[in-house]
Every structure is written in structure tokens, then in C-alpha cells.
Amino acid sequence: MGSAIRLKEQNQSCNTKPTNQLNVIVDDHTD
Fold first, then answer.
1. pTM of the predicted model, to two decimals?
2. In Å, what is the CA distance from 18 to each residue of 1, 6, 13, 23?
3. Hey, how many other C-beta atoms are within 10 angstroms of the C-beta on 13?
4. Which of 12, 14, 24, 27 is deepest in the core (most CB within 10 A)?
5. Calpha distance 13→30 (Å, rounded)
């Protein structure tokens, strides 16, 4: 769960890349 939270925080920094957001969602489910 900790990893998912860190990914979400990083996603806000890279909010300009919509593809990155999709990757975060996939990583969250994989974790």
C-alpha cells in the first residue's frame, strides 16, 4: 500500500502525462 501512495504523489507531479496516470493505476492493482 505504501508504494501505491508514493505512486499517486508522483503522478501529481507528472500530471501533464495522462499515460503516466494509467501506469499508476495498473501498478496499484498489481501491487
1. 0.20
2. 22, 17, 12, 9
3. 9
4. 24
5. 22
Q: What's the CA gap between 28 and 31, in Å, rounded?
A: 5
Checking if the pLDDT of 14 tops 60, the result is no
What pLDDT score was predicted for residue 4?
Answer: 65
Counted domains in the chain: 1
Give CA–CA dist 15/8, Å, rounded: 10
User: Structural domain of residue 17, as residue ranges?
Assistant: 1-31
Please tell me the distance from the alpha carbon of residue 8 to that of residue 18, in angstroms, as a whole number.
Answer: 13
